[in-house]
Amino acid sequence: MSPTTPPPIQPPQDPPGNPWSLSGGEIISRLAVDADAGLSAAESARRLPIHGPNLLREKKVRSAWNVLAAQFKSLIVGLLAIAGGAALAFGEIVEGLAIGAVIIINTAIGFFTEMRAVRSMEALRRMGTVRTRVRRGGVIQEVEAESLVPGDIVILEGGDVITADLRILRASKLQADESALTGESVPVSKTDQPCPETAPLAERSNMLYKGTALTRGSGEAVVAATGMNTELGAITSLVDAAEDDSTPLEKRLNRLGHKLIWATLAIAVFVVGAGILAGKAVFLMIETGIALAVAAIPEGLPIVATIALARGMVRMARRNALINRLSSVETLGATNVIFTDKTGTLTENLMTVVTITQETGEIEVRTGGAFFRDGRPVDPGGDGPLREILEASVLCNNASIQGAEPVGDPLETALLAAAGGAGISREDLSGRMPEEREEAFDADIKMMATFNRDGDGYRVSVKGAPEPVLEACAAVMTAGGERTLDNGARRRWLETNERMATGGLRVIALAAKRTGRLEEEPYRGLVFLGLMGLQDPPRREVREAIAECRAAGVRVIMATGDQPVTAASIARDVGLVEEDDDRMIHGRDLRPVADLTDGERREILRTSIFARVSPRQKLDLIDIHQQQGSVVAMTGDGVNDAPALKKADIGVAMGKRGTQVAREAADMVLKDDAFSSIVAAIQQGRVIFSNIRKFVIYLLSCNVSEILAVSLASVANAPLPILPLQILFLNLVTDVFPALALGVGEGNAAVMRRPARPPGEPIMTRGHWLGVGGYSLIITASVLGSLALALRWLQLDPPRAVTVSFLTLAFAQLWHVFNMRQRGSGLLRNDITANRAVWGALALCTGLLLLAVYLPGLSGILKLSAPGGHGWALVAVMSLAPLTAGQIYASWPRRKS
Question: Is 34 noted as a catalytic residue in this protein?
């Protein structure tokens, strides 16, 4: 066998129980994997069924039987059972069987509606799958974390969430936050060296555990355990803890429902008593009271709310906004301040190096990798300073280009592309000068450094923000060699930096030095190589999205780590501020919240651009606005942004360039990193809340009208306008389908032309309760009026007259759905008429009502008879009266506040 041929891989043994005590070679051998190539696709597919998906035991999915059984535990079913028992006790066999049928139908509707909600939420939970970078078949690729198997080689980088238990094979400044597992609040350093077999979990420095996160550094590791075999899987208290998935909105709806239950029962008792005292049959009044209670109790509110929330979240996902927490949907609708980063959110994040400025002059970098100075081509191979800065930009870099695909931070891939135009590749340089040490990028000092072996010593390459890099430099590279960098030269370079940034360029500085010691301080005694200007054009749709926010009363504030002049240039380009608005606050001028004067707070609240701010300062800015009562959304992408994302009312992480830590901390993840997706999500949040409010108002006004009609007839000793089984039938028809249709409406853009609602505003304000009362009185008047006219004017017999009042109530409630349109919206073109589900519900309900009247058997049970031509004409006129009144009110212009 050739000495260069790798030894054959032995069949895998069971995953080792103590991988921390084995050397890297031993663990690789035990798991039967080639660390340089990783597992093949076929081998990973073979191992997956053996070890199972890399998932913790999830909270048990609700089965269909479980959902069905829950239907029989509801108060409505209990009341119906009492009514059925009373019917049988009074010898009303047909009535008892009919109520039994109502129980079955009510249970079926509740079952299918709740199953839809349950399945919608399960589908949403599956949408935000975590992905992990692995090496398989010699190629680095992203795979779903649940497909990881023991033996997979995982590529690590600061910001990653650890998705399995890993044994580290190579570590460069690796640090992990293990607080979720060990309670240790300070990030712990990691190494690739074996640990004692008896080492406790918190001291296994060569292991990374599922559920923890990398805070800095890079490296490689092999999967040692997955799923329930991980340390996190062993902690059953974490795994089996049942979470309350109810949102604040659903809880408020539940509280509203319970209050209505007691109010309804009191009214039902009053109606029963009044009817019996008026001489009506005891059984009829008991049955009527129970039917009223069943009709008035809106137990379907939480289920319809869940469906509305889930459908809205699906629509958000189609607009590239994934919601991590259901409760965030409600908060989105009340958001009135957005803190946004600049790069990749307001800009395209398609960076390109366009200029390089050195002591030797300014070099234009053109598309295709051509370099020009003063209009003449420059050969990087013959230009020492130019080649030096390009090599530093490649060495101090964690990105890569695989084929034609860039992998990594867009700024770093842009640097690789520029160097590639000069024939400088990362593979060649790393082969000649392997990396021995990395100082990961530090958000506080805004620099990173790498040490690459170069002959007998090391080449240190540094890149970062111009100010700190210049401060760390003692010399500058010129055509004739190094020259001392004095304070005057530093000022000139800072002026150059400002000029470049004023033109809208993202500017970074590069520096280098040689040293004989790997332990050398990287940010001291550097040689300044020059500045690189990168162009990142604003997104075309951002200006329109910001204008939409302004119309919606949502304020947009830029908080960026970039330079003030670059931030101001982009802010003006996208319409964030007016051309003459020069207010801006630099991070160095921001004091801690506790030290701010009232004047400084007011100035912060007035300012829309914050530049060179740190993650800590972003937290303070959020806090200041929240103290003013604002509901704040905050965008972020890095590990250091996680605290601010948690602090904000809505944390928004970047899906493309964001770290997994940021995505885990956020309430919402943008798949396209676009600011316009945030605006679309806020619009959808408003639509969802508006839909829920509409179907609550609709349901309550329909239910109250039924109670009023029966109550007033009982008190007046008049014939009941609607009989018990008719009430139950109507409850199954009008309370379910139109309300559900209102809950899933897509809304319209008009919601973004109104201010955000106050965060503490209840679902039903005083105005909404007055609206419910007004609508209920109009519907009640129509029903009682139709009954009186049918008896006295049309001279119909009582069964046909009751049919007229029943149909009047039924169709008045169906047409009432159009009264739920937004006030001031178009009469024929509005969010209700544009909702196809509404038309489908109306068609279905109309068909069911016609069957109730004309289908033999059903009409007999419900005591309905054909009303005749005159009766139908009366139904049409009287049922349209509430719609007419409601449309007049809805067309009335809204008062300007």
Answer: no
